[in-house]
Amino acid sequence: MNIIGPELLIFGVDDVAACKQFALDYGLTAADEHRYVALDGTGIEIYPADDADLPAALPTGSAIRKTVYGVAEQADLDAITAELSKDREVKTLADGSIEAVDDLGFVLGFMVTQRKTLELPAEAVNAPGAAPQRGLNITAVSKEDVGTPRTLSHVVYFVPDFPKAEAFYRDRLGFVTTDRFTHVGPFMRPAGTTDHHTLFFIQTPPHMQGIEHFTFHMGGPTDVMTAGTNMVNKGYQSFWGPGRHIFGSNWFWYFKSPFGCNMEFDADMDLHDDSWTARESMPGADNSQVFLLQYREKWAPMGPPPPGAGGKPPGAP
Amino acid sequence: MPAGIRLCDLSELAEGPLGFDPFNEGQDSVLVILRDGNVYAYTDVCPHYGNTTLPWKKNAYLNNRGNRIVCAAHGALFTIENGLCVSGPCKGESLTPVPVIIENNTVWLVTSRAGENEL
Ligand code: FES
Ligand SMILES: [Fe+2]
């Protein structure tokens, strides 16, 4: 079952206009009235919470209404249909995608992926001892740079029973656990990607079930920083970060959002294959990040130019 | 004159809730809401994690209908009148009330009677 990763997250939200503006400011592009996409076409869809055509909300009212996975080809859809129809209804929708409900009540969709293959350079770094990744006279940054989300990366759910969730995604959909936090839950990747995780579960009481955050991959840590700084400059409020996780090694910066969950930027995640042995550690601040920075308005350790230095002092008309 | 810190004119709350940083911490720590003629004030801390602020942008403390306080991180909803979380991760827990009083159309944070709501 060649599931590649999340293709679309479908939300039913309280404030559609705020969510659409947030999506644009985050760096997604409006593909149509509802869909906001990253560079490869993966993305999110935004509807009012009371839209009658949306799958029903969880009893908790979480805004996530459906998680749609991209698969490689029709044969994968057929295989998923065959597997899941053993014990539940699998609908085929008008667009050819299929829909079913997982063992915890999350609505899932599966579609033949429509994501574009990206051909973009990664962030290039020069380091002593290594061949330069950026050539001579090529500057890395400018003040105007704002990183653009490249592809939908992962989604994280609060779940009332993570062993049940892990078993469903492992046994029925072919996901692999790459690492885990003790008593909290596993990081999982589907068979069609080497990304450390596209899915992470956090054990909670039942009244919390829902989406905790979702995120898109950026081109590198600098893109995380420039995109996050752009959000701060637009008045959005950071939740956690910027920093770098230990499991997955991904850089992160989380923002609160009008989606009723956090929205993250991430970059430079570890890749794994089946030879990897899952690690386990206790949850907590110490095992969650290699380091955590905190945003501060731009500042430099110098005052205005000294008298007579020429040029305009900052703030001069 | 109470022993307190001036937050705003009462009329400024007519446009919607406001966040304040009365102790100069670099981020808002108190939110104030005017509703049906009453003023409600709470610490801007979500009981879910206990150390993060509520809004996704400055002053965005209410849901679209304006009848619930929202924590944007995971969508917790709180009543305006008593700060009780009625939906979301911290259901059953409450925002911490902050004592404020209104004098001469000015909203004051009462610092001499911490923990006791004057309203
Ligand atoms: S931190 Fe407020 S709902 Fe989670
Ligand atoms: Fe994440």
Tell me about this structure.
- Chain A is of the alpha+beta class and 317 residues long.
- Chain A has one domain: Roll (2,3-Dihydroxybiphenyl 1,2-Dioxygenase, domain 1), CATH 3.10.180.10.
- Helix content of chain A is 16%, strand content 32%.
- In chain A, the strands form two sheets. In chain A, strands 17-10-11-12-9-13-16-15-14-18 form a ten-stranded mixed β-sheet. Chain A has an eight-stranded mixed β-sheet with strand order 2-3-4-1-5-8-7-6.
- Chain B starts with a strand and ends in a 9-residue tail after the last strand.
- Classes of the chains: A alpha+beta (317), B mainly beta (119).
- Chains A and B meet through loops of A and loops of B.
- The complex binds FE2/S2 (inorganic) cluster (FES) and fe (ii) ion.
- Fe (ii) ion binds next to β9, β13 and β16 of chain A.
Tell me the layout of helices and strands.
The complex is a heterodimer of chains A (317) and B (119).
Chain A: E1 3-13, H1 16-26, E2 29-30, E3 35-37, E4 43-48, E5 64-71, H2 74-84, E6 91-92, E7 98-101, E8 107-112, E9 151-159, H3 162-172, E10 176-181, E11 185-189, E12 199-203, E13 210-217, H4 221-233, E14 238-245, E15 251-255, E16 262-267, E17 279-281, H5 285-288, E18 289-292
Parallel strand pairs in A: 1-4, 5-8, 9-12, 10-17, 13-16
Antiparallel strand pairs in A: 1-5, 2-3, 3-4, 6-7, 7-8, 9-13, 10-11, 11-12, 14-15, 14-18, 15-16
Chain B: E1 4-9, E2 18-20, E3 30-35, E4 38-43, E5 68-71, E6 76-79, E7 85-87, E8 100-103, E9 106-110
Give the tally of structural domains of chain A: 1
Small molecules bound: FE2/S2 (inorganic) cluster, fe (ii) ion
- Unreliable segments of chain A (pLDDT under 50, ≥5 consecutive)? none
What is the arithmetic mean of pLDDT of chain B? 91
CATH class of chain B: Mainly Beta
Please give the radius of gyration of chain B in angstroms: 13 Å
- Oligomeric grouping of the chains: heterodimer
GO molecular function (chain B): 2 iron, 2 sulfur cluster binding; metal ion binding
Protein name (chain B): Rieske domain-containing protein
InterPro entries (chain B): Rieske_2Fe-2S, Rieske_2Fe-2S_sf
Organism (chain B): Alteromonas lipolytica
